[in-house]
Structures are given as C-alpha cells and as structure tokens.
Amino acid sequence: MAYKSDIEIARAAQKKPIQEIGDKLGIPGEHLLPYGHDKAKISQSYIDSVQGNKSGKLILVTAINPTPAGEGKTTTTVGLGDGLNRIGKKAMVCIREASLGPNFGMKGGAAGGGYAQVVPMEDMNLHFTGDFHAITSAHSLLSAMIDNHIYWGNELDIDIRRVVWRRVVDMNDRALRQITASLGGVSNGFPRETGFDITVASEVMAILCLAKNLKDLEERLGAMIVAYRRDKSPVYCRDIEAQGAMTVLLKDAMQPNLVQTLENNPAFVHGGPFANIAHGCNSVTATTTALKIADFVVTEAGFGADLGAEKFMNIKCRKAGLAPDCVVLVATVRAMKMNGGVAKADLGAENVDAVKDGCANLGRHIANLKSFGVPVVVAINHFVNDTEAEIDAVKAYVKEQGSEAILSRHWELGSEGSAELATRVAEIAESGVSEFKTLYPDEMPLMKKIETIAKNIYHADGVVADSKIRDQLKQWEDAGYGNLPICMAKTQYSFTTDPTRRGAPTGHSVPIREVRLSAGAGFVVVVCGEIMTMPGLPRVPAATSIRLNEGGEIEGLF
Questions:
Q1: Of the N and C termini of the chain, which has fewer Cβ atoms inside 10 Å?
Q2: Which run of H or of E encompasses 144?
Q3: pLDDT for 1
Q4: Which of 15, 39, 41, 73 is catalytic?
C-alpha cells in the first residue's frame, strides 16, 4: 500500500484561520498578531493577563536514544495532543522551532509526520516568523560591539586572548568552527582567534527560552560573560552596553507562535535549543502560557531522555517552577530491533529475539525517568511492518519494568489512533501520583553535579576531566556560580560519548573536553567527547534534493 508523504498530507490540510484557533483557547483577536492567515504571535499583554489562572496538567514526551530506524517523538507529541482533544480534553501542544542547519543537512524537519503534524509545515521548517533570524542578529550585534569596543581603545581592558563570545549562524558549516577574525591591517582591528556555533547553541537562544518576560530577558542578556581581562575578571554584556539593543531585536521573537495541527487543534511553536549541545526545550513563556489557557499541555524535550528529558527536569523545571504530571517515553519496534543488532536494511522482517535484546535501552530510560519521581507510559509508535509478536514483546518487557506500554497509530490514523494513549495519559495526569524531584540540589558542587548525571543517567563509571577543567569549575564556584545546573553537550545516539555504542552500555567513562559558563541563561555547559557546537553537513546534504517545482511548490523538504 502506498502512503502519502508528510508534505503531501500537510498540503492537503484543511486549515482554519488562525483567529478560529485562538478562539478555541479564548484568546481575543486583538491579542493575535497574524503572520499571514495560518500563524500568529501572542501579545505580551495577553500573556501577562492570564498568569493568575489555574495551571493545567503538564505532559512531557521524550524518547529512547535516536536510531536511523526512526522514533517519532514530535509525531507522538502532536498525535497525543490531538488524541486528548478527541476524548474531550482542552489540550494544546508546545514544541520547538526547526533550525535551518539540520533541515538542509541530515535530520530533516521538526513538525511531526503522517497524520500527526503541525502546519504550515513548510513555513515552520524554513523562516517561520523570523525568530531564529532575530536571535542570530542579536547575537551578531554583541559580537560586533565587542570587537568595536576593542578597536576604539579597549576601555574595559579586555584581554583579546580571552574573548569567549563566539559568533553564530543558523547553518551547519564546519569550516567556521575555528577562524581568525580581523585580518587585513590596522583599519580592521586586532587579529584574534574565534569561531562560530550554530544559532541553536547560542546563549541568546537559551535565554530567550528561559526568560519570563522582556525585563527578565534584558537582565539575563546583560549578565552574559563575553570576555575576561588580564586579571581574569569577567566582562559582561552589560559592560559593552549591548543588552538594550539586543532586547529590541528580540522583542517580537519573545512572543510565542500559535499554529495548528492537521486536526485544527492549537499548538505553540517557540524557541529551539538543541538537546545535544543546548538545553533542548521550547520556551518557558510558551509552556507556562499554555498551562494557563489549556487543561492539558503536551510538550517535548529533544533527542533521547538522557539528554532532553534530563535537561527538562533539571534546568527548565528548576528555573520555571514546573513539574510534569506524566512522562510519555516514545519507542518503536524498529528501534528495538536496531538496538538488538539488526541492520537497517533488515528491519522489515519479524525478529522477536532482536526486539527483546534491544529493549535494554528502553528499560534504562524508564528507570532514569522514574528516578525523577514521575509516572512513565511507553508509547509504541506504530510502523506498518510491526508484527503482533514484536509489539507484545515490547509490552511484556515494559510491564516487567513496572510501567505500561500502549500502541499508538497516530501517524496513520491521527487522533483515532492515539485515543487509547490519550485516555491513559489523562487518567495518570489527573490522578496526582507524580512526585517530581530534580536529580541534584542547587548547592551540590559543579563537578559533583556532572558526576551525578554521568553515573545516574548515563550509568558511567566516572568522569574524566583534567586539572584545568576542575580548576575552572572551582573558580566559577568561588565567583558565585556554584548553584547553577549543568547542561551536558553530548552525542544523542548513545548513553556514552561514542555514538556507535547502542543499547545500555556500562563500564564507560565520560571525557570532558571543555566547560562554558552561560551566566545569563543560568547553567554551565559541559562539552563531552567529540560533540560539536557547530555541526557539519553530511556527504550528501538534504539541500541537494530541495527545490521549487513548476507550480512554485517546495519539493524535497520532507
């Protein structure tokens, strides 16, 4: 049987005017700032007006470690949101925006799939409402002002060898990872070594996603450390006096974007830090606003639960005072087989033994999530080649772990296929059984926090860090930053720092290459193994297949 592609399904969607979607949430038309007919931003005055409302139930969707077989976390997030609406709940979805880099590289878009999508899909995966461009511009403004300050006499006595503020671009471009700037003589400034990260790794992105309002945004931007003096004292963004202009550039980007699912249910799509190199969650503003205007909010955390969910719990929930009422862990039979040693080309054939062998990865994620005190439901994202015996094997394994697995066919059937999952999730969320707790206390030393994540979440024997890194962490503690949470930058494909090691490995260590203080965002970034904060394109980028057809429609995007 031939199935329509995601983009074919999205183009056939019967979208409603965005004002009607706002009506479902009780948002007055004057508080919608339309971007065309099918998307709009929500005014800050409306956001402020609902803060006294009772909060709804928060559902976190996460997943096992991603494999080439596909897991479908965003698809499940959207499908569950539609399913909750189908069973009579007032629910909405909160997901992240897509980065251009992965869209044109290897990962593809981030709007769901099949009959569980958010639309307009093409807009969401490209320029959307310009939020990422605003973040890139604000970041670039600060970069320019730092070098300009040095050029015009360096009144702050910045040590140009210790400028830690890098540049960003929303594209995968390995050639920019390490560069020399200001070449060309006296008129171009003082040559120095620097580099680029991808926009989603920018501290500005993290701040936008954690800030509560524009005042908080400006204060956090001002608190960013951009360089050090010769005496190693920090130079802040506020010393450069850039935070005001940066806030002006980010004014509209701070407002959540309202769109709709294929079934015309509301969705906020806002912010987009990656989970492997940043904190991996959509904006606090979007999530907290959604909780005030819907009874159920379904959100996701990027990549596997060892990255996205861990950071959702330890960073986002800690900073925003949130607590999930239920966690949905997405897995597929195909991914279990791949974790069990089956090659991608052979995934179509039934192999119950491989499914059982591959379930160890799933089991570790279940145990990790339960350690946060939250109830866990496994959603088996159905693929058409899955057999009953394979599905039963996953269900039996999950039951042994003290949880439950529910087959969800939202990709094929939309909300009809996710109604059973939605019913059970709603029951658990409404039961009040969640006893959420973070993994570590604020007062724990930074190195101990890193070791706690490595041992409790990755099940590593320990952490490998040289004296330079340990000394840097101690200096930050002495400067008053010891209470910050940790943001691990690590490969998403494995519990280890080796992306080829699937399953649930033990006996490994976590090597730390670098640590970065994000004082404005309020966390310490720990760069592990070979992970890059500026990705590269694959040998054959997805961009080679993306074009406009004769009818002016986009082809190859998804």
A1: N
A2: helix 131-151
A3: 58
A4: 73
Active-site residue 523, yes or no?
no
Please confirm, yes or no, whether 411 is among the known catalytic residues: yes
pLDDT at residue 10 in the model: 87
Q: In what order do the strands lie in the sheet with 462-464?
A: 462-464, 509-518, 523-528, 486-489
CA-nearest of 55, 119, 53 to 82 is: 119
Asked if 354 contacts 457 with a C-beta cutoff of 8 angstroms, the reply is no
Known binding-site residue numbers for ATP = 67-74
Of residues 411, 495, 523, 558, which has the active-site annotation?
411
Of 285, 306, 271, 314, the closest CA to residue 214 belongs to: 285
Residue 302 has pLDDT above 90, yes or no: no
**Integer Cα distance of 116 and 9 in angstroms:** 10
User: Which pLDDT tens digit goes with each residue over 57-91?
Assistant: 999 999 999 988 778 999 999 999 999 999 999 99
Nearest to 324 by CA among 369, 382, 378: 369
- The first and second tokens of residue 439, run together, are 């993994």
Please report the pLDDT score of residue 109 as a whole number: 66
Containing H/E element for 534?
none
Taking residue 260's Cβ as centre, other Cβ atoms within 10 Å add up to: 25
d(CA 282, CA 94) in angstroms, rounded, equals 7
| Distance from C-alpha of 533 to C-alpha of 389, rounded to nearest angstrom | 41
Cis amide bond preceding 120, omega within 30: yes
Residue 190 designated active-site: no
Considering the candidates 303, 312, 372, 558, report the single residue annotated as catalytic: 303
Q: Is position 383 annotated as part of the catalytic site?
A: yes
Q: Which of 16, 24, 90, 107 is catalytic?
A: 107
Mean pLDDT value across residues 323-344: 95
Coil, strand, or helix at residue 200?
helix
Q: 266: which strand partners?
A: 260
If you count DSSP H runs as helices and E runs as strands, how many of each does the chain have, helices first? Answer: 21, 25
Residue positions forming the annotated binding site:
67-74
CA–CA distance, 463 with 239 (Å, rounded to integer): 36
Q: What confidence tier does 152 reach under pLDDT thresholds 50, 70, 90?
A: very high
Q: Are 268 and 282 in contact (CB under 8 A)?
A: yes
pLDDT digit string (tens) for 82-126? Answer: 999 999 999 999 999 999 998 898 756 678 899 999 999 889 889
Return d(Cα 268, Cα 22) in angstroms, integer.
Answer: 11
pLDDT tens per residue, range 32-65: 999 999 999 999 999 999 999 999 999 999 999 9
